[in-house]
Amino acid sequence: MLKRIGSGDPCWCGSRKPYGQCHQEFDRKVSRARFMGHEVPSHKIIKTPEQIQGIRESGKLNVAVLDYVAERIRAGITTAEIDQWVYDYTTKHGGIPAPLGYEGFPKSVCTSIDAQVCHGIPSEDVVLKEGDIINVDVSTILHGYYSDSSRMFMIGDVGPEKEKLVRVTREAVEKGLQEVKPWGYLGDMGQAVHDHVKKHGYTVVEDVGGHGVGLEFHEDPFVSYVTRRGTEMLMAPGMIFTIEPMVNMGGDEIFVDDGNGWTIYTEDGKPSAQWEIMVLVTEDGCEVLNHASKELRVVD
Ligand code: MF3
Ligand code: CO
Prior knowledge:
5 helices, 22% strand, binds 2-amino-4-trifluoromethylsulfanyl-butyric acid, binds cobalt (II) ion
């Protein structure tokens, strides 16, 4: 028999506060949404204050790794060098690069250039050259807590078309972020991202998306950016997920590299861009746990 938790019992969240003064009202709101037919978060994906603090610290290292890359990335270096920087900086500061060995991924970071949509594998054979746009996707484990973010870098003069793709993708993340608040729906965020992308004639990749994150690399829910307002999972305080749309200049069709089983490319060979941030839903809005620098960086 399962006993109903009473107002005076300790809350399920581990705060040691009585349930009635902690998550009782939260559970009522969640139940109401579930009753209305909405997908709702399980208790498992709601983070405690202590976990949030751990994930925040992990996010700080995650940002520092990307800042370290940002200072060094330029034409003439190989993506293997980026991988080495990420490995060295992360481990020197007590962290572990999450991609290394993840489901067999061979490197510490993903580096995806131009028509590579995501999961590009760093290589000594890939030299950055003027005109490239590259996504550097860094995922960090610190004291068991996961963080995840990515930025675009433009190598020298990339031309107005690629520059616009990079900028609009960044703007789309910000538009989505504005919709993150408790008791809304993930589809509010997804539609804001998609609307902005469509407005500029681009497409959003549907088959790869974002995810919950923090205690594991990839947690529930799957986060799509091809969704409609008022649909998808209810956003509740304590949830952490990524906003990381992959935006294609051409069509949304993609394929996976047969050779390595990882790297995803646009079917039409046109460029793709992505920015990624990790967001905590709070009581009164949201907190970005690893905000990329405001500027779009052009590097030589
Ligand atoms: N960093 C990616 C994400 O944003 C996941 C990469 S999985 C890896 O979710 F194994 F390729 F690293
Ligand atoms: Co991610």
